[in-house]
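Model the whole thing, not chain by chain.
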Amino acid sequence: MHIDNLSTPCAVVDLERLEKNATRMATRAKRLGVQLRPHVKTHKCVEAARIQTAEACGGITVSTLAEARAFAAGGFSDITYAVPIAPQKILMAIDLHTRIEAFNLVVDTLDAAAAVEAAAEARGVRIPVFLEIDCGGGRTGVDPDGEVRDVLVRRIAASEAIDFRGLLTHAGHAYRARNRTDAYDIACAERNLMATLAAELRDRGVPVPVVSVGATPTVLAIDDLTGITEVRPGNYLIFDAFQNGIGTCEVDEIAFSVLATVISVHPEQNRAVVDAGALALSVDPGPVHVDPECGFGRIVAVEDQHPLPGLRIARLTQEHGTLTGPGVAALRPGARLRIFPNHSCLSAACFESYHVLRGTEVVDEWHPARGW
Amino acid sequence: MHIDNLSTPCAVVDLERLEKNATRMATRAKRLGVQLRPHVKTHKCVEAARIQTAEACGGITVSTLAEARAFAAGGFSDITYAVPIAPQKILMAIDLHTRIEAFNLVVDTLDAAAAVEAAAEARGVRIPVFLEIDCGGGRTGVDPDGEVRDVLVRRIAASEAIDFRGLLTHAGHAYRARNRTDAYDIACAERNLMATLAAELRDRGVPVPVVSVGATPTVLAIDDLTGITEVRPGNYLIFDAFQNGIGTCEVDEIAFSVLATVISVHPEQNRAVVDAGALALSVDPGPVHVDPECGFGRIVAVEDQHPLPGLRIARLTQEHGTLTGPGVAALRPGARLRIFPNHSCLSAACFESYHVLRGTEVVDEWHPARGW
């Protein structure tokens, strides 16, 4: 099928770009001497993860138990659930762990560590666990300098029911970078912190098999990961307008787009409307810290994906994307556009499936593991 | 099943509140002397629409063809698709129209009107069509004072293949209201404009059977709809934190919430994290024009839904909701909270199903018609 025959709005993956992005990251991880454990939350598709892991280790990272179950069913046997586990989900996690090689959990509180330990003891299993460190993102993870860190390490490392896998962090603040230099600085600080912490623990006799970092902007900015053993970027496989805005990728590396149809044109009012609204693109505001006028995504031509700078997505409501700019005068109802969303992860999750294209031909359809 | 046994994050509907909201709006529409044609895009569930339409006409409004198909299959036979139709979707719309009593389309361009006419002629059917008027929302609809309006009315009214149903508008700018007085002013302006336009057309001999307005804030603010025949509010059935913020509803009328579990607590950093992030709540910024510190939803207690003012949802990422405020010190991992999202329509669309509760007991599960 040709792209022109797809009904809109729909999600479209550029397979050639995706494959290039996968190869580039795998090569980069090898050169940096770290294992690549891609975060599959961006696309939630087994097919995409197979492409990502072909040239690196088979390990992946997930953000939900629904992803974990789907990827386990799809043949992935070494999965890290990189969100602190809710006590109520521990039994489900243990069940999954007993069915695959390793389902690695993350904790950042004593309560969660104690709950994992108790459940593992009750089931007679040993559960692999990472301690999450807050390297500056200010979301989850223990304060690297705080007392909680030491208490937790002692508890986890001493437990018979817990297999302490090491330290894990996510530099979410790299998304506030303005450019590659900012991301580089954040990546260096993240590396230095994690490598130092791991060395300290080892000096105290605590084995730290894995030191895991990762976010697309930092991994792509840094040139030396000494002291780090693993990276977990996710967005890099398909990128988005945000990553382009902060200098992480070029426009022609973005491999995910939403195909849309123009449904209303009123040039005298400087506006047109497409059928891709908040439920197709998500209302992620994009890199407004770099470009306050960035709008809700980047509009490109359907066939060759060249940017159409005369059009801006000024506003999104549920099923309407309002375009402004000099380009609206050239539009007619029925015209089709391709939109690079601000945040591919959030936009992709809006769709039941993605149409996978080579050039303008649909060659496959992938179904993400949505929900929880 | 008790609410405590639900896995999180999940969507929860308070059936008692929903029924009260439905009754109140139906009573209100009767008193105002207008037909209630509820917009079902908010919940996308046949079960909810049955409750909405029990006391008014059976007509409903939809925002996608997927909703139209699902509601037609669910027994709804008079459906208005209140988004300007894309030329490529006209044949699908005609197919649907031939299977139910009426599938009413909306156009706001000559191109779309001509395309509907041509397709209807080719199929030998007469298609009911509304002309959309822009009453100030600045999204879709013709300029009420512009030349396009007259050209379109002439074209539609003269067509043998088009059954001109009347005028339709949506005061989307009512969402920028700061309070009920603002909404009232917008509602009066909308009513006056639409009633005047309809009268002008009738004076020229053009029958205008329906004059349709509607948005939850305006319909709930106005006390006189003389000249209007139909209202299409949607959000009123379940409301949300936004509607509460602009004074459209009370907190105890909000009937949709997301149940979440605390997964990380670090009081020394003034933060805790729940497992409801951007993919459960949507990143709708909420009524920031009224309260810049509103955060990404309102947190309430699980059982009696009383507000917990000491907690604010400061930030959302894909699967993390970061809470701040004095209330975090009292939280423990595993604690559960209920969150009124900023925008129920966008949050509800994140879920494969909603758990329907009477009090704290789950009595049903509804499946929205997602996608397009």
